[in-house]
Sequence to fold (602 residues):
Amino acid sequence: MERPHQSLGTVSIIGVGLIGGSLASALRDSGRVDTIIGCGRSAANLDYALDLGLLDHWTHDPEEAASAGDIVMLATPISAVIGLMPLMEQALRPSAVLTDVSSVKRSVTLAARSSLERRFPRFVPGHPVAGSEKSGASAAKADLFQNHWVILSPLAETDEDAVDLVTDMWVAAGARTRLMEEALHDQVLGMISHLPHVVAYALMPLLGTQTARDDCMTLAAGGFYDISRIASSDPVMWRDILLHNGPVVRDLIAKYQGMLGELDRLIESADGPRLESWFANARELRNAIQELRPSRKSDFE
Amino acid sequence: MERPHQSLGTVSIIGVGLIGGSLASALRDSGRVDTIIGCGRSAANLDYALDLGLLDHWTHDPEEAASAGDIVMLATPISAVIGLMPLMEQALRPSAVLTDVSSVKRSVTLAARSSLERRFPRFVPGHPVAGSEKSGASAAKADLFQNHWVILSPLAETDEDAVDLVTDMWVAAGARTRLMEEALHDQVLGMISHLPHVVAYALMPLLGTQTARDDCMTLAAGGFYDISRIASSDPVMWRDILLHNGPVVRDLIAKYQGMLGELDRLIESADGPRLESWFANARELRNAIQELRPSRKSDFE
Fold:
């Protein structure tokens, strides 16, 4: 529920990377926050964000950041989100709200259930479906979330006012929110995001082994270049995503292998008509997707 | 060898689609051609090109177009290129030059050897590594080839003056040419273009079968959207490419499936360090490719 004129208070962002930095930037521009505190390991990165005006101050200490926030945002790779949970239980003020931006929900919520006892109802699992292959506060953009979806996956135990506050924050950042059950989130994101990254990562080493590698690299065009951009995403973030959505991703890989096998058989049997209709269907599906999206050229903008 | 002030004469373009239309447009802008004749099956498409000034006139009859050209460009899907070869043998004037833009070279050259007897030395196999997922003369762009590579794969029998003329034509269109042996061409393009299209095409039907398809389609982001653009390429053109480079593509599919299997095993065994280094290597490779390319955001521009 929007309360357009009420301040969001102090927002503490732990992990001031592309997402955390962009959120800081968007919230700053919204004029809806009093104070933005950053927390992370790289002083250089945090100073950069401070100099840009994204932060009011920063700390290396997550406990300090968490205890000061009305909203505490965990925007680190998933392994760190999970690692920080016990500290959050200790540091969060009773009225504070905890949220995250992890690309996998079940795994994080499971860890949160274990680690947060009193504070579990204050945790609002979230995931902005936005971003680019770039990393760090230097890549932060105030409009990163503009017109993008943020998925919120509250549990039965989650406080309603906590959900409202996190919704309000994302609306202030220019996004639109929607609720999605956590298992469904992981399945959907597995399909539209995690599998495509596996697909891209699997392609890259082939270029390295390919004869005439230099020819390939100079010419890299015709689809390879576009797919390879996806594979330049942050290695640590994606290591964690694929590990934490393992069963879903592996199931999708198996299905995808099946599709490759079918295409291979059609090529082997020189089945022109079936290949043509496969490709025509793909084109139709692409057109249908385009019609449903706000006018955007790429995921990565 | 460039002869910057000599007219290219009459250029006949059979197949006035994205590539043929863009070539017409680029050559028109260059001021280096006297006459551009179009040939194809769709009167609407040809009229469109005529109205845009890309063509001086058009015909449905490939024999008429071929007999009039100093340069005869075959820019249809590969199956039509091969089907037209016997007609080319009959229609081409002795001094005329025949060339193509097919994404597969060995298969086309093999067919040319069979069909063109006297005219085989006049045939210069070519392939501009440029384009987009769009189709038709309405997608034609005068700068499509600007700073792009055009691969020429002349044979031992190919006349040198024919190669020079085709080179000159592509330079006039804004491109740069390079020679590449035909089998190497098919291997390289298999890796950087054909396999990526297979990879994209294999992904698409999974969205159709995916539970919560509507959720997927609305959110389609995070990599899926970008990859799906590749899969909206022209179905007939790609049917022909994959069929005509079948052995190379199937070998690459097998290798690619091996990579997917390795990634799957790493996820299964939760091997974080190996996943992270795989992804870090992918990022490095992407950066290296970017440094070698003229400043372009995408293959498809």
Chain B touches chain A through 98 residues (CB under 8 Å).
